[in-house]
Write a structure and sequence with these properties.
The complex is a heterodimer of chains A (about 400) and B (about 500). Chain A has about 400 residues and is an all-alpha fold. Chain A has a single domain (about 50-330), classed as ABC transporter involved in vitamin B12 uptake, BtuC (Orthogonal Bundle). Helix content of chain A is about 65%, strand content about 0%. Chain A has a two-stranded antiparallel ribbon with strand order 1-2. In chain A, a hairpin with a 2-residue loop joins strand 1 and strand 2 (about 175-180). Chain B has about 500 residues and is of the alpha/beta class. Chain B has two domains: about 45-55 and about 95-250, Rossmann fold, CATH 3.40.50.300; about 275-500, Rossmann fold (3-Layer(aba) Sandwich). In chain B, about 35% of the residues lie in helices and about 25% in strands. Chain B has a six-stranded mixed β-sheet with strand order 6-9-10-3-11-12, sandwiched between helices. In chain B, a hairpin with a 2-residue loop joins strand 16 and strand 17 (about 330). Chain B is globular, with a radius of gyration of 24 Å. The chains are: A mainly alpha (about 400), B alpha/beta (about 500). Chain B: GO terms for molecular function: ATP binding; ATP hydrolysis activity. Chain B: It comes from Phytoactinopolyspora halophila. Chain B: Keywords: ATP-binding, Cell membrane, Membrane, Nucleotide-binding, Repeat, Translocase, Transport. Chain B: InterPro entries: AAA+_ATPase, ABC_carbohydrate_import_ATPase, ABC_transporter-like_ATP-bd, ABC_transporter-like_CS, P-loop_NTPase. Chain B: One of its GO terms (cellular component) is plasma membrane.
């Protein structure tokens, strides 16, 4: 790096954006905040949020949604989404239970069947979206309805049974960490590395960011989209296996839980852009944990289940509103003249000037120091040679 | 690792013809847009391609790039006939194109963008370290050390992004690079950076095909210039042997006595229509400005100096948080564009596609948009005027029901202008009114401004193009860092505008 003004400019922006956390960090900060608030509220009731039962409850909740949301992250990163995952979970729980039929020797077969079925559904979703160019919303909504119709006509109640050994997947604990959560975290790590290290992972960001740019760069965008949907469905299949292990049987009616919406909420809470191209698994896990902690806390506090949904809805909307706000801020120009009411949150140090102050005549010029606000000094372009770094001081 | 066409030694080939396009025909949906066009590019030359919008420049460029395929004629690369079916094929053959639309992923880093689609791998995994190192080497080789491979593209200025585009194109071992209006979105000082990069490319023996509407750039940069008109080749000439008047004449096929129309007889500068008194907000400070009836005031300054911010604040998009604003002697507070329109202000925005037009709606729907929204009571009478306004602007469209996305840039701009003229504004703010439109449409915009000022409209014109500022304005207000740096009267030269805008004499270091 040469010692040019631009370099200094970049450095300035980095230091100014110390508190400007990236989306993923922000999710985990929010998670810690919610855990603390939850612990206090639970503590006021004379209980401990961190006792084994509650901890296990939180982790158990997170494993099921975790699997689905990890998959959903791939789809959303590619600027797609999958509304069929809830139905895939229901279907695969039945596939697992009816294939295993309580026979320990058929566990492998059951898992294989689940992966095959879910993979095939993902493949169908992906191909319809990539080749037939049907809108993902419609494609996966339709796919969900098809599966729902099949389940409703074929399976009125629980079906099949899962051998005891396989039920261990649902109930075994390693200390306070349920096995299912450990598996979910392992899948999350694999997904994280896949996005960070594989070409296909890189290309998912490209397809979601701008499919045309991706195509023009030689990326087979269709393949990437299909891969994302296959991975998404496979993850839903894993969730189906977990349902089967927990219930000991296949259950069609779990689609009533609207996992697809919860998973989208978790992904978006996790800072992945609903329009694709930015985000990742780490944030999603943060989002999943936030939802799980909320549910556990609501449970302990015995919040009315309907009101619980209201609260969840409010929190999700508020979170996304905060992201949108940050997005706006990032686009906004830096503050050059700070008069304390320019709509900026960073201006508390500046003297307050009421908006109507101008009515009494000319405003005195601001003190000389004001213009030299951080990051401003280097704005003065040198003749014809300078490219400024953009004003958007994003931390990451 | 990707290498550049290495060192000055590559310059040995300078002058040899690397691309020869001959007799290129092309039709779209039965409409022929290219008629037997010839074009040859030599190693180490900057070859400008000019012509009015619709002359076929972009189509010709896209045929070379493999986006379109020619119906007739041949394309030869190093003497071998080629036919590119896809841009990637062209890229592999060493022909890269920087299109007008940005082809970058804003959320990814410079390196990730440069190597998009061919990320280096080690043991099957993307080798981010090598990717960054290779990008850094590329940047260093081009003297772009201020650009870090790990910067997110979103955080770069428009010029920075443009440069990433070019670096990306170069990283494909490009020997031929075409650029479609690379400076359309750049301010003057940013253009300099591009100039230097193009200079570097020329030294390395890269053939640069350069499409631009800005005549100044063509004379600054190019060795030869090819002129197209209505899809046919007019001529290819050495740039040094032609004057800008001759070039314009060749492009439009008619002599233009003076590029900027004279003031209309009887135009008088009248009373103050709009006055800003010590106005400011987060971006601006101490703005005193008077716009008078019949006067064209130009707002000049570098990109980011606060020009567009003034327009936005006047129009209520952002607000002034200090100072006062007066229209026709009455104190007004404009808190929204709606109030601005009601106060008689019109704003022709910088980005007509994003802010000026509903592209998939008809000419008529766009033209009456503001009237219907803001002045429904008076809309009836004024809507009647719209067809007249459109035809007075020489709009070329099939009919008023045609969707505006099918119109050329110049005609789209005319629809935007008609939309605002229909509101009969007393103050008209024009932000980069001639950006990306052809010479003919530019002239129409200029004469429109003259007509409006003759009718007593106060005009504020924001422009990055100094000739336009100097050619049109009665008064030039120069901004620097959000404040007014000074005011110049009509007839000022480019140098004095620039020295006010930059804060020191031209050529001097800080």
């Amino acid at each position: 790096m040469s010692q040019t003004t631009e370099t200094v400019d970049v450095a300035q922006q980095r230091s100014r954006s110390r508190w400007n956390l990236g989306p993923t960090e922000l999710v985990f900060v929010a998670l810690v905040g919610i855990v603390i608030i939850g612990a206090v509220l639970v503590g006021l009731r004379g209980q401990n949020l961190f006792n084994t039962a509650n901890t296990v409850d939180m982790f158990t909740r997170s494993s099921l949604l975790g699997f689905i949301a990890i998959g959903q992250t791939f789809a959303i990163l590619c600027r797609s989404l999958d509304l069929s995952v809830g139905y895939v979970v229901a279907l695969t729980s039945i596939v697992a239970a009816t294939t295993m039929e309580g026979d320990t020797g058929r566990i492998g077969l059951g898992i294989g069947a689940v992966l095959l079925v879910s993979g095939a559904i993902g493949l169908a979703n992906g191909l319809i979206i990539a080749v037939l160019r049907v809108n993902p919303f419609i494609t996966t909504l339709g796919m969900g309805l098809i599966i729902k119709g099949y389940l409703d006509t074929q399976y009125q109640g629980p079906a099949g049974s899962v051998p005891t050994q396989f039920q261990q997947f649902g109930f075994t604990r390693l200390g306070f960490l349920p096995l299912s959560t450990a598996v979910m975290l392992a899948v999350a790590l694999a997904g994280f590395l896949f996005l960070r290290k594989s070409r296909t992972g890189y290309h998912m960001f490209a397809v979601g960011g701008n499919a045309e740019v991706a195509r023009m760069s030689g990326i087979r965008t269709g393949r990437v989209m299909v891969t994302a949907h296959v991975l998404c469905s496979l993850c839903a299949g894993l969730a189906g296996l977990l349902i089967a292990a927990r219930f000991g049987t296949g259950s069609a009616l779990v689609y009533d839980n609207l996992y697809e919406l919860d998973s989208i909420a978790a992904v978006v809470l996790g800072g992945t852009l609903l329009l694709g191209g930015r985000g990742g698994i780490a944030g999603t896990i943060g989002g999943v944990l936030i939802l799980a902690v909320l549910d556990t806390v609501f449970n302990i506090l015995q919040v009315d289940p309907f009101f619980k949904d209201v609260l969840r809805g409010v929190i999700i909307i508020a979170a996304v509103a905060i992201y949108a706000r940050r997005q706006l801020d990032r686009k906004a120009r830096r503050i050059r003249f700070d008069d304390g009411n320019g709509g900026s949150a960073t201006s508390d140090a500046a003297p307050k000037v009421p908006p109507s102050a101008g009515s009494s005549g000319r405003q005195p010029p601001p003190p000389a120091g004001v213009r030299g606000a951080p990051g401003d000094a280097h704005e003065t372009s040198q003749t014809g040679t300078t490219i400024r770094q953009g004003p958007k001081g994003e931390g990451r | 690792m990707t290498t550049l066409p290495s060192g000055p030694s590559a310059g040995a080939d300078t002058g040899t013809t690397v691309v020869r396009m001959a007799g290129i025909d092309k039709s779209f949906l039965g409409v022929q847009v290219l008629f037997g066009v010839d074009l040859d590019l030599r190693a180490g030359e900057v070859h400008a391609l000019v012509g009015e919008n619709g002359a076929g420049k972009s189509t010709l460029m896209k045929i070379l790039a493999g986006v379109h395929q020619a119906d007739g004629g041949t394309v030869e690369l190093d003497g071998h006939a080629v036919s590119f079916e896809h841009p990637l094929q062209a890229q592999h053959a060493g022909v890269s194109t920087v299109f007008q639309e940005f082809n970058l992923l804003p959320e990814r880093t410079v390196a990730e963008n440069v190597f998009l689609g061919r990320e280096p791998r080690r043991r099957g995994l993307v080798d981010a370290a090598q990717m960054n190192a290779a990008t850094a080497a590329l940047l260093e080789d081009l003297g772009l050390t201020w650009l870090s491979p790990q910067t997110r593209v979103r955080s770069l200025s428009v010029a920075g992004q443009q440069i990433v585009e070019i670096v990306k194109a170069l990283s494909h071992d490009a020997r031929i690079i075409s650029m479609d209006e690379p400076t359309a979105a750049l301010a003057d000082e940013e253009v300099e950076v591009l100039y230097r990069l193009i200079g570097t490319l020329r030294e390395r023996g890269v053939a640069v095909l350069y499409v631009s509407h800005r005549l100044k750039e063509i004379f600054d940069l190019s060795d030869r210039v090819t002129i197209l008109k209505d899809g046919a080749l007019v001529d290819t000439v050495d740039t040094a042997r032609i004057t800008s008047d001759e070039l314009v004449k060749l492009m439009v096929g008619r002599p233009i006595s003076s590029f900027f129309p004279d003031k209309i007889e009887g135009t008088a500068i009248g009373e103050t229509r709009l006055r800003l008194d010590g106005c400011g907000n987060a971006q601006l400070d101490g703005i005193d400005l008077e716009l008078r009836a019949g006067e064209i005031t130009a707002l000049a300054g570098l990109q980011g100096s606060g020009r567009t911010e003034i327009a936005h604040a006047l129009f209520g998009v952002d607000r002034f948080t200090r100072g006062s604003m007066w229209i026709d002697g009455r104190r007004v507070r404009v808190r929204s564009p709606r109030q601005a329109v009601r106060a008689g202000i019109a704003l022709v925005t910088e980005d007509r596609k994003a802010e000026g037009l509903a592209l998939n709606q008809s000419v008529m729907a766009n033209a009456r948009l503001v009237l219907d929204a803001v002045q429904p009571g008076q809309a009836g009478r004024r809507v009647q005027n719209i067809p007249g306004i459109l035809s007075s602007l020489d709009l070329v469209a099939r009919d008023v029901d045609q969707e505006v996305r099918f119109l050329s840039g110049g005609n789209q701009q005319k629809v935007v202008l008609a939309k605002w003229l229909a509101t009969e504004p007393s103050v008209m703010v024009l932000d980069e009114p001639t950006r990306g439109i052809d010479v003919g449409a530019k002239q129409r915009v200029y004469s429109l401004m003259r007509e409006l000022s003759a009718r007593g409209v106060a005009i504020l014109m924001i422009s990055s193009e100094l000739p336009e500022v100097i050619g049109m304005a009665d008064r030039i207000v120069v901004l620097r860092d959000g404040r007014i740096a000074g005011e110049l009267s009509a007839g000022a030269d480019e140098e004095s505008v620039m020295s006010l805008a930059t804060g020191h004499a031209m050529g001097g270091e800080q």
